[in-house]
Write a structure and sequence with these properties.
The protein has about 100 residues and is α+β, with helices and mostly antiparallel strands. The protein is about 30% helix and about 10% strand. Strands 1-2 form a two-stranded antiparallel sheet.
């Protein structure tokens, strides 16, 4: 029963499915230097919980938008949280 339920919600059948956009490549402007500069700007701290942060998050979820105003540093835990309820996180983080 459990396996049948999992298969019924896998891939494009899931209500979280976004059309496979997580497989889109990053913009060529999303360089190591850019990521390091964003971490440095943010003091190497997650902008949500203030713990040590290493992940760079695209606030508008557009991998092609590498404007530094659209990028923030997050810890892995907070970065995972931002994958759900994206409208909420965009509204919360855009003013930063």
């Amino acid at each position: 029963y459990r396996q049948k339920c999992e298969e019924a919600q896998r891939g494009d059948k899931s209500n979280l499915w976004k059309g496979g956009i997580q497989f889109e490549p990053y913009n060529q402007d999303f360089t190591r230097e850019l990521r390091v500069s964003i971490r440095k700007r943010d003091g190497y701290k997650c902008q949500l919980c203030k713990e040590v942060g290493k992940s760079i998050h695209h606030i508008d979820y557009n991998k092609k938008n590498c404007d530094p105003r659209n990028l923030i540093t997050l810890c892995n835990n907070c970065h995972q949280k931002t994958n759900f309820n994206r409208d909420y996180w965009m509204k919360l983080l855009l003013p930063l």
